[in-house]
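Thread: "does anyone have the structure for this chain?"

Original post by V.I.:
We have the sequence but no experimental structure in hand. Need at least a predicted one for the grant figures.
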Amino acid sequence: KQWYQRRVRGACKNGKDLLGSVTIRGHIYNDPELFSLEDLCSVKDRSMMESLRPIVTSWLQHVDNCGLCRGKGFICELCARKEVIYPFQLTTVFQCQMCWTCFHQSCFSGTCPKCARIQSRRTLSQEVDPAPQEILSN
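Reply from O.Q.:
Generated one for you, tokens below.
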């Protein structure tokens, strides 16, 4: 979740100010898969979660109120809701691993409509404009 939030904030000049106020060990933000023994102990005793909660809350408020950060969000094309959704909303959002488009998990049925459109266009363009090898063989 932090990795996604860092990507959204990295595009915002104001989001960089938020990172400057962080007092948690920097490697947690730079490489979310790298943990020290101290980090693992603080995860187990839940102290890491308590120390990260106010930081994550302030970042989420920033993303909700910042036009640049909101512009990095997605609108679910499968429903009529106009709320902006983000890949870091892990419990409610599904992100396609092929095209990176986001959908509400409750809306997603297993087939990404954007990937289906892209595949349909590729198929159509191959039918209309055959590859040079096909022209030479005929």
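V.I.: this helps a lot. DSSP finds eight helices and four strands in the chain.
O.Q.: and The chain has a mean pLDDT of 80.
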